[in-house]
Amino acid sequence: MTYDVVVVGAGPAGSVTARFAQEKGAKVLMIDRRAEIGIPVLCGEGISQRIDKWGMLEGTNWIASTMDGAKIYAPDGTMVTLSKEMAGNETGYVVHRDLFDKELARQAGKAGVDIQLRTEALALLKDKNGKICGVKARTYDEEFEIPADIVVGADGVESRIGKWAGINTTLKPDDLETCIQYTLSNIDYHSDYAEFYLGKKIAPGGYVWIFPKEEGVFNIGIGILASLSKPGKPKQLLDAFIKSRPEFKNATCLRILAGAAPVAKPVETVKDNLVLVGDAARHVDSITGGGLTTALEGGKLAGDTISDCVKNQTFDKESLSVYETLWKQAFGQKLLRDYLVKDIMLGFDDKTLNMLADSLKDYKFDEFSTLSLVKALVLKHPTLLVKLKPLMRLSEKVK
Amino acid sequence: MVKPKAKVDEEQCLSCGGCVSVCPKDAISLKNLRAYVDKEKCISCEICVNTCPIGAINMEAVD
Ligand SMILES: Cc1cc2nc3c(=O)[nH]c(=O)nc-3n(C[C@H](O)[C@H](O)[C@H](O)COP(=O)(O)OP(=O)(O)OC[C@H]3O[C@@H](n4cnc5c(N)ncnc54)[C@H](O)[C@@H]3O)c2cc1C
Ligand code: SF4
Ligand code: SF4
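The joint structure predicted for all components is written out below.
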């Protein structure tokens, strides 16, 4: 069997790219080094209900719970609420990421994509002119070659496929959130909100999150900026946070995960006949560290573009760059704006965060999004405008 | 003398890939859900050590 396209990584970005490329006529092989799709889960599992409109997932087994909004806590406890009533009906799900990923892979398989697990990409294949022509892979002890006209790097935060193609995907420590999360059960606490806790002492350059997964079960995690971290610091800070909260006293831990979320500017996503999607492309919101919606959105755009290129048999940068143009239109400005906000927020001390939260605590947000938060901040604090000016212009375009 | 090189405690590693993403020399890969350092490539910068959320990487003398 020969393939037009090989996709490395069967996460959300890989599965969606593979599916839409195959549905419109390309022959696609997707490989993943994992033995089971979605396992281990490396995610907070929160996602906007915006995905309902896209219809990429069938059934509901991947939904763990629905959330009514978000509560953001300043260091002194002042709370800002973004809720359903203020923001229309579109809020969030907590998902079972393993089942979520499996459903997306199932859809890819249904479209005709071949999936090979326990298969790791080791290197890119190049022809005698230096053009990429597939990947070298290993399954169990056997090494073999997968020739393909287009290679997709959907290999997540590690993004080595891009690196091997000469794209600089190495993250600087101040562009990475280093994370740990527990799934805790037997908790005598009820919440229908995603909760976020900010503060230099709580989570330098990041935040603690609490997502309600099931009754009495929560994902509680922390991400801090790697440049402000020390070996094991995320774990120490999360343990201290949990200890300070009486409702977690009798908790039983069901799962521990470590994680790494890029909070970087997107990289070059097309190099000759190679394309990057999802975390590998740094398609992650730098304020929240969330990357699931952009993985789906960007994956579809990549898949559509790739199928056109296969149809026309054009495997060059120019033809594939349609994808880059499309994702920049869809969410490029937003990613850039939130990257700038991340930088500005990093300069805020706890006192400033408290002050900002206080000024927004009764604010009626018109939308459940980071954009509405940023807009409110700009509106309330013209004194901060100097710093936020470049970002304001971006926000205007984003709407 | 050769500088100490990064070494992953395989018992502890939770395969998050953070160390892989920051290594300037592409010296780390995940094999069977554990990070592994290629000593030949490692330049002892310690970035990975500080990045690991659970402190599973140390610098170790090589002979
Ligand atoms: C702790 C944490 C919490 C998060 N919480 C949220 C959240 O609540 N909401 C949200 O939207 N986002 C969240 N994110 C971000 C989200 O998890 C990612 O954006 C998302 O997983 C990106 O999907 P992806 O398909 O690009 O990559 P991944 O899901 O990482 O998939 C990459 C796949 O590639 C495979 N792979 C890698 N290298 C190779 C190779 N050489 N050969 C073969 N296979 C390979 C891997 O095994 C993996 O299956 C969080 C991230 C972290 C770390
Ligand atoms: S010490 Fe530096 S070069 Fe060596 S593995 Fe760690 S990050 Fe890579
Ligand atoms: S950062 Fe730590 S837990 Fe994550 S893969 Fe590297 S060694 Fe393992």
